[in-house]
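Predict structure. Input: EboA domain-containing protein, 217 residues.
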Amino acid sequence: MNQPTPLAALRAHLDTELSGAARAWLDQALAEAAGHPRTGDEKNPPVWESRFAEAGRRTGQEHADAARVLVLRTARADTATLTRLYTQGTAAERRAVLHALPHLVPGPDALPLVDDALRTNDTRLVAAALGPYAAEHLPTHSWRHAVLKCLFTGVPVDTVAALRQRSRGDAELARMLGDFADERTAAGRPVPEDLHRVLALTVPAPHAPGGTEAKES
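Output follows.
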């Protein structure tokens, strides 16, 4: 989910992929999400939160992320609800919350969830944390270290949203990448190919005559 997917497109994708029983379950889950209170608490959660938790069983693990994101977006879950679901959830449920952030949280209020995910060694969680929400809101220092974590743990840098835009002209990121490469070489370990790709992105874009930045081909 490198770019936010429109709600209708996400639903159409699931309608195409799911079996009849799974589509019926999804219809019920979305009706509950749309028709019940948007928020709840630990003692009195809205009924749709049960559907969020059981999505893996009902749709299959390969479709659970999309189903959970659709439920969260239909419910218009607020930051407090998302935080509770993340804190109490399984790794798969936490991943879905992270995917839903750019649709539901307009400002940086959910950054603690991103920070928490980036501290884990769960590569799928790290990848989910570096979607469009982090691209827009994660501070530069933290974002640079997140890119290095991807290289260290083997998370493909293609999963990092806005990698090209945020890397361009970043001399400090280039320095950190160079240091990391030197450490790997000194230890007799291979330098990840993705490191060279990111390093190439840190080069400032050429400028056209007149001081305006040349457009990329």
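Residues 20-35 form the longest helix (16 residues).
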